[in-house]
Queue: 4 jobs
Job 1
Amino acid sequence: MSEAREELARWAAGRDGIVRAEKEPGESEPEPEMPELEPAEHPELIAKLREINHRSRSDGRLK
């Protein structure tokens, strides 16, 4: 999972109060499905995605 997706997952989990069990070393986690979102329905999520995208581009992780 990319760093941006991990950060987004941590942010979303904290925002929704989701507690996840720690995975064992070497245990893989399936890629989560990314649903289609309407910006008007999820303004906080869209803002967070833009922030992560901008930061990733600024430090050279994305081109």
Note: The longest helix spans residues 43-58.
Job 2
Amino acid sequence: MRKQKLESPALQNLKRLHTKIYKIIARLTCQNDTKGTWLANEN
């Protein structure tokens, strides 16, 4: 419950941006199948 209260729109945007950056890095390092999909499943 406390976690949801902290989820502001700004934080959600930051998470989304972090996910995009992570996926780009994963693609560049050829780890898109492992870490990239894992992160996508987390969200």
Note: The mean pLDDT is 74.
Job 3
Amino acid sequence: MHSIIIQWLLAGAVAAVATGKARRQDGPIDPGTAADCTYWETALDTSYTCVYYQDIWGISAAELLDSNPGVKADCSGIKVGNAHCAVENDNCDKIVRAYSTFIFANFQLWNSDVKPDCSGLWNTDDPASHNHNYDAAGLDVQLERTYANPARGNLWM
């Protein structure tokens, strides 16, 4: 049973890498792209359109355009090979949809500070805290701000 869980987690990690989704930007970006972007996706071919980014990442057209000024309202400006800011401000629903390899109950199990209403994901008492990891199916993912228990660290080393 343990090996099945490990295989499932590895499959999720491979899927994230194979799709071009990355925590760090791995392709060129347009000037003015959001500096505080937490998640990037490189357009691997012409199927990466505005609708693709909106559907996969659960973001609005306005969020996509605000974070990626090189992308125009008619969706021109998405360049194959370029990294585009896909998620500027994470929430539980966006995180689960972005990975598509686990459900919220798993995410909450891996991150004990996250409550059923997603409170606890951000530590709003300390706006200066940033770049802390949370667990998502064993993948190392960064938030713009730390969650409520920074001493806990990453469970999946």
Note: The chain has five helices and five strands.
Job 4
Amino acid sequence: MGEQAPVRKWSVISLSAMALSMLAASVQAVNLVSNGSFEQSSFTPANSSQFTTQVTDWDNADPFGRVYLFFPNTATTSGAVYTASNPFYTLVLNQVGEPSCDGGNFVGIDSDPTFQTPITQMIGGLQAGQKYTLSFCWALSQERNVLGPTTDQWQVTLGSETQSTAVVANPSQGFTGWFAESFTYTPAVGGNQLLSFLAVGSPAGIPPFALLDGVRLEKVLAEPGSYVLVAVALLGLLLAHKRRSERA
């Protein structure tokens, strides 16, 4: 009998630890996207620029694609340099509500059909049949000194599955404000899958500009309530075991 109390004590500790770890797992979400806030790059701070591979973990495969990294407070002032032209061209947006919903740097893409090009990142460790939530914030602006209303949307692909935001209209020289977006993906194949953001705008020649920030991809976990139910069940088993031990 003298050895049963320590056994019961360790049972309580083990079951409690199990319940707490499950509850903690339910509220901890790991972002599978690297540098989703676009804060890491090889550019000198405050020198906004067109990029291909200079933004860490992101790629723009078209060297002539008008894909830009904007540092805070530069989009409507000093602008960003388009390095694919000779001489370089500096692009300045008319309006941008800053900060973005994620703060800091953000990406801007000319979504004119002539210049459309995606930015991509390879995502590793995906599980087939597992649901994932992709979230990001976005907005629309327009190049300074260009007049005319525009429309824009993001087409977002993970592996073979593509989802799109609504098509949003932006008045001439306007700014839409930042939107929060969320999609759910269920990969049919596990392992590595390409994540792609393509801005699709109109009309041609009046550059619609789509802005992007705060990209996150997280596994959809069980609701915390389900773990609470498991913890209650474990506690019930422990109490039942304790009563049997006391009767013995």
Note: Residues 56 and 83 are 18 Å apart (CA to CA).
